[in-house]
Amino acid sequence: MPAIAASVGRGARLAIRDLRVGFGGVAALDGVSLDAAPGEIIGVIGPNGAGKTTLFNCISGTVRPSAGTILLDGAPLGRLPPHRRARIGVTRTFQNLALLDSLNVLDNVRLAAEQAGRQRSAAARADATRLVAALGLDAIARGPVGGLPVGTRRKVELARAIAGRPRLLLLDEPTSGLSEMETADVIAILRAQHAALGFTALLVEHQMPVVMALSDRIVALDFGRKIADGTPGAIRRDPLVLAAYLGAAS
After folding, report:
1. Any residues with CB less than 8 A from the CB of 177 and at least 6 apart, and which?
2. Once rounded to an integer, what is the mean pLDDT over residues 113-122?
3. What pTM does this model have?
4. Most exposed of 88, 173, 189, 233 (fewest Cβ within 10 Å)?
């Protein structure tokens, strides 16, 4: 297998083969396989308990699968811990915001770039400053993150994830708790940053209009198994997905 290179930016090719995870005898993932081409955005949908978060945890390295492989540009992630995966460009947002409330906005973003281990301090600060401005946060860049409204905190977390110059970005409910206007703002930010950086992304999101607006392809999970994989239009009409998720959601 080729070695994983710590190249900066641009999308990686992701290949997942027969991934299996069990908790207490319950299969959280039961033979899941999927592919994402460089620069592709894949939506991952399904009801609660379908295995979406477990899939993200396996890719980011916080859960070790009992079987299966995860390949980044053809090289297995294997037993790499989360911080090593971050250094090769696997970054993540969280449904429950993971910010450092004692630091200001700019330092939250700068520290994320430095922790990824792919930039020196001066370059990390320059990137952080650019991202903070691009996401419309420059007016509050020197203010503490603690106490900011949820919509603004979501933007800060997005900036933190993008500051690592991701090759694979895992987006976990990026519009959770946001208003319609804030959601539209996050969609616009993701589109602009994706166009600029070309990262590959997996998107878990319960708001189907967001999934449909951002995804090139959608994978549907149910009870830990993949039940569908196709374009947004095909998924919208798929009878298995309608029965398991979309029909109930509507």
Report:
1. 150, 151, 154
2. 72
3. 0.89
4. 233
